[in-house]
Amino acid sequence: MATRRNPTARQIRLGVELRKLREAAGLKAREAATLLGADSAQMSQIESGIAGVSEERLRRLAAHYACADEALIAALAAMATDRTRGWWEEYRGVLPAPFLDLSELEWHATLRRDVDFLQVPGLLQTEDYARALFAFRVPELPRSELEPRVSHRTKRRVVIEGPAPIPYETVIHESALRFRVGDRTAYRNQLTRVLELSEAEHVTVRVIPFDLDGFAGSSSAMVYVGGAIPQLDTVLRDAPHGTGFLDTEAQLARFRTLFRKVEKVSLPPERSRDFIHQMAKEL
User: Fold this and answer.
1) What is the value of pTM for the model shown?
2) Kindly report the CA angle at 79 between 16 and 253, in degrees rounded to 5?
């Protein structure tokens, strides 16, 4: 059983879900390992994403765990047998792993929901906007590291601009739209891009204006990525130490509710477009 030095977030998630099924069945790792003719160490490697698992072995485990959720088993089997080497692989060894993990997550996503208060969401950013953000980093990035970040962020747009776009909903606070990241021209182009994308049938853009009374949800920024089934959804939260991936049932339920609360108080799509259009006219 070959092992991986650096498993991706998707591979780790597969292992986590297998561990959840085992624990729900009340079995120890050594008991599950016996079924596969393996030992506890090998089972640990599978459940940590360090080692892969075949579809046949995965289905044997699911049966042994008395898992009757066929949709979940099929989704996990698809994860186990996936051999996709997507466009993001060209950045492996160039960009930090979380950049690639996000790209892979988006590639397999069924939907995407964003809430942002300080920046225009990454999938809506122009190259100039993204470049200005990365250039402001301390310590300053050399050009050899800055440009790959910009091109990577640009290529991520394929999930909403490519031949098979996913449904995309975003709630953006007025503060994120008001910050002039870059010069006046770059700022105008960024607002124009948001407006253009908001016209697409699969894209919904909503705005929370400054003058909204009683809004207390400024800590609810999130990236919510839909999996093959709701149980495999993922939430990303930025933290000082890096990006965190949240996927427990309780966490997912919390952020689904949180998104709907933020969405409910935002302007509807038509009024949001008018709002952004008026901002652009003021330039």
Assistant:
1) 0.94
2) 55
